[in-house]
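USER: Note each token:
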Amino acid sequence: MSDKEASDKRIQEIMDHPSYRLAYMDQDFIRGEDLRPLRLEMELLKPEMCLDSLGIKSTVVVFGGTQVAPREEGEAMMAEAKAAIEKSPDDPSAKRMMIRAERVLYKSKYYEECREFAKLVTNHNKQFHDGEFIIKTGGGPGIMEAANRGAFEAGGQSMALNITLPFEQTPNSYITPGMCFQFNYFAIRKMHFLLRAKALVCFPGGFGTLDELFTTLTLRQTGRMQEIPIILYSKEYWDGIIDFQFLADEGVIEDSHLDLFQYTNSPQETWDVIKDFHGFEA
């Protein structure tokens, strides 16, 4: 090998080494432990800058379970459960499958009601075209899909904050392109849910919905965020899983903290609460 060939080879080795990569293009560097503060800041800044450029001023946040399915999916699950029971009437797992299928089918009404609620909100948006009260969800299936779908079917915009998970997490198809953001950090995602929020509606859901609800209630309880209506959709469901009055009776929250939220049971009632809170007609 000539001196020039040896020199060229060494130069290429230098340029191929990770140390030579531009810092902002070096994924190994960006994803390193020491760069977490930078990644957190970037997750805060990117959606904020994008929404500013789109003129999005405020949002109506909709939380709810991924397993709240449209009626046709609930009926399909029920048919599968019935087939399992007919095949093995005494099988505990088949009986359990039937119980869950019955509840999923029953809750399918919430999918349709969430869809209708999002249409009401979006029809208001279309009337004023001012970037206010845009539907915002977590971008997944179930209640999130229903809300984005309602906005889409009303001919308006909606946005979503998706999250990277160990299992596949794909945005639903009803979100407005350019208004769906992916997050790695739950904390920054929660912050973005509430930064522009003018209302929060919690439909029936599980751990994730409860986490998001109690984060919001705690921020309101401690005066760390703007006043907004926090609405629990379906008193039947929420009374079945949480006894808020018990918390007040036990003295672990104040009686006044029960006023931080309210229940509704129909799409129109929910929208009326939001309108009344903000003092406008629609």
The domain at 52-70+108-278 is CATH 3.40.50.450 (Rossmann fold). The longest strand covers residues 158-163. The mean pLDDT is 93. The longest helix spans residues 92-128.
